[in-house]
Write a structure and sequence with these properties.
The complex is a heterodimer of chains A (278) and B (313).
Chain A lengths: L2 H22 L4 H6 L1 H11 L14 E4 L5 H11 L39 H14 L6 E6 L6 H12 L5 E7 L2 E2 L2 E2 H4 L5 H7 L3 E6 L3 H12 L6 E6 L22 H20 L1
Parallel strand pairs in A: 1-2, 2-3, 3-7, 6-7
Antiparallel strand pairs in A: 4-5
Helix pairs in contact in A: 1-3, 1-4, 1-10, 3-4, 3-9, 5-6
Chain B lengths: L5 E3 H15 L3 E5 L3 H4 L2 H6 L4 E3 L4 H13 L3 E7 H7 L1 H9 L6 E5 L17 H6 L5 E3 L4 H13 L4 E4 L4 E3 L15 E4 L4 E5 L3 H14 L4 E5 L2 E3 L3 H11 L1 E9 L4 H12 L3 E7 L9 H7 L4 H12 L1
Parallel strand pairs in B: 2-3, 2-4, 4-5, 5-7, 6-7, 10-11, 10-13, 13-14
Antiparallel strand pairs in B: 1-8, 6-12, 9-11
Helix pairs in contact in B: 1-8, 4-6, 9-13, 10-11
Classes of the chains: A alpha/beta (278), B alpha/beta (313).
Chain lengths: 278, 313
């Protein structure tokens, strides 16, 4: 996909995110929207996956360590064809397979159940180590939050990944600078994030995580990096694309009401129309 | 009388892993800087490329195992029970239990028989913690023969399994031609009519010894080895309890949440029976030689004998 196609796809995914969270009347739109461009690039450009064969053994793997942004992952998987887009409005409803946090047992395309922060990177490390052990070519990607890296287990995982030189692993930090209680550097600063990963023997790349040129360049650089894992610190805008959600911590974990939903969809519609003029 | 052969079940763990490793290429052993103590070092020597030391980072080890299992490996993670079940509880619940992954947890150094290291390392809560997780199989073998059989059964079972091992060398009691290990099936070691004693782990041997003392007093105890805490052999528990009308449980674990609780839950609902639980009574352990502690905490044959005698009166 070229950048314009990626932008159009990401905008459709953002509409799905807002629609799913609105229907659920709860959930996490802020981080889903900030990471939507990364989700889009991963599933439409970077990763070798087959929606018709989600458990294909040689596929690339993705672990959503920041599992609360499940709406972002689900919207992307649906857009890619892993399951029907209509199902997104059942998110968080009783009896729906679209659980509040990723459930690998019931959702096609979800490679690992997650949601308890700090654990996903370890799982991705295990997958990457299995790939190395079996001489497989698949790559493993995991998305963590900038608040999430306050969890100590992230650094246990980083230490081992660096130690084992897992160059088939890419850790992406969605650095939108906000967590539930406020700005990450006010709650408990994780900065400098890139220097920390560097100290754990990662190759690090800092990018604007809402810019497809930079996203593309970063994943290409990661692919060409040998002998060490890569951490992409993606500076993003929380709530990106929805005017009243942008850079507001309060939209971390709450659903828009009917009125807000209309405004949000109107915002995204305008973005989509502008892209189509290009 | 010839000397009774004694082997610590942690040794059985290491040896059983080697045997399984010969047959199964997908078996990978993870440890957290305790390979010498958990005895996975024996496996490391035989299969160095399939023994991965994670360093002192049990939570990460657990996540790595989850990831490995999604890629078709059968990982055995190894640490002391305190860390494998205690520190790791939430990782085991969410990263292994919830997705029902095929990960085995080999937990050594359980109970007060850890000895001199004392309370911080004497896990008395692991059976309770692990039993609580949906889909988790919880095994607590009583000797070398049973521990090796349990490791093999754990490998063959598809799904998460927790296996509890001890540091202390304990008598080999299951070295019989007809011994058979089946997950979820208790073993009647001695039939009796006056009281049913359900024991687990190293307490099985102590219960057998206690039965001899009780016999001398005219009390005919039925001794049942419950090596599988979950799924519990409910049928056997109910049948024996109904037969004798009195039930005692014995475990080197807190009386809260372990075998005693599991048996009580079944009997309360399905066959109310007079019952007492022998174990550690809502307290921490302490430092001392293992056999001295077992005596002090009245978890030896003499202690069991006294409690059962008072109970059946």
């Amino acid at each position: 996909m070229n950048n314009l196609e990626l932008q159009i796809t990401a905008n459709e995914i953002r509409k799905s995110i807002v629609t799913a969270v609105h229907s659920a009347k709860s959930g996490h739109p802020g981080g889903s929207l900030s990471a939507a461009d990364i989700f889009t690039y991963l599933y439409f450009e970077e990763m070798n996956v087959d929606p018709k064969n989600p458990k294909w053994q040689d596929r690339d793997r993705f672990v959503l360590s920041k599992g609360h942004v499940a709406p972002g992952l689900y919207a992307t998987l649906a857009e890619k064809g892993f399951f029907p887009k209509e199902d997104l409005t059942t998110l968080r409803h009783t009896g729906s397979y679209l659980q509040g946090h990723p459930d690998m047992k019931h959702i096609p395309g979800v490679d690992m159940s997650s949601g308890s922060l700090g654990q996903g990177v370890s799982v991705a490390v295990g997958m990457a180590a299995a790939g190395k052990f079996d001489n497989k070519d698949y790559r493993v990607y995991t998305l963590t939050g900038d608040g999430e890296i306050q969890e100590g287990q992230i650094w246990e995982a980083a230490m081992w990944a660096g130690h084992r030189k897992l160059d088939n692993l890419v850790v992406i930090v969605d650095n939108n600078n906000l967590q539930i209680d406020g700005a990450v550097d006010e709650v408990c600063s994780p900065y400098p994030i890139d220097e920390k990963f560097k100290a754990f023997n990662f190759h690090t790349i800092v990018i604007d995580g809402n810019d497809f040129d930079q996203i593309r360049a970063a994943f290409e650089e990661a692919r060409n990096t040998k002998g060490q894992p890569t951490a992409i610190i993606a500076k993003t805008l929380k709530g990106k694309g929805v005017s009243f959600m942008e850079d507001v911590a309060d939209w971390h974990g709450k659903a828009p009401n009917d009125e807000e939903y209309q405004i949000a969809m109107e915002d995204l519609k305008k973005v989509g129309e502008a892209l189509c003029q290009k | 009388m010839s000397e009774v052969k004694k082997i610590a079940t942690r040794d059985s763990y290491g040896n059983a892993l080697v045997e399984l490793g010969k047959e199964h290429e997908d078996l990978i052993v993870l440890d957290a800087d305790l390979a010498g103590a958990t005895k996975t070092g024996i496996f490391k020597k035989a299969f160095p490329d399939r023994h991965w030391d994670c360093g002192i980072a049990e939570a990460n080890m657990t996540g790595i195992a989850a990831g490995l299992s999604t890629c078709g490996k059968v990982p055995f993670i190894s640490s002391f029970a305190m860390f494998a079940a205690g520190r790791n509880f939430e990782q085991v619940r969410n990263a292994i239990g919830y997705p029902h992954l095929n990960v085995k947890i080999g937990a050594t150094h359980a109970g007060i028989s850890v000895g001199e290291d004392g309370a911080t390392h004497q896990c008395l809560e692991d059976l309770a913690l692990m039993r609580e997780i949906p889909g988790m199989v919880v095994l607590n073998p009583s000797d070398d023969v049973e521990a090796k059989a349990a490791v093999k059964a754990a490998y063959e079972h598809v799904g998460p399994v927790y296996i509890r091992f001890g540091r202390l060398a304990v008598p080999v009691i299951n070295d019989t031609p007809d011994y058979k290990f089946e997950i979820g099936k208790g073993i009647v070691l001695k039939e009796g009519t006056d009281v049913s004693i359900f024991a687990t782990g190293l307490e099985v041997n102590e219960a057998l010894e206690a039965a001899k003392l009780l016999e001398a007093d005219g009390i005919n105890a039925e001794i049942i080895n419950i090596h599988t805490i979950k799924p519990l052999d409910k049928e056997l528990v109910i049948a024996s309890a109904t037969k004798t009308g009195k039930v005692v449980t014995v475990e080197e674990h807190s009386v809260i949440g372990g075998l005693g609780s599991a048996v009580a839950e079944v009997l309360c609902e399905e066959a109310p029976t007079k019952m007492t639980r022998i174990g550690v009574y809502d307290r921490f352990g302490e430092s001392g030689p293992a056999t001295e502690l077992i005596k002090k905490y009245e978890l030896d044959a003499e202690g069991i004998y006294k409690k059962v005698k008072a109970f059946v009166k």
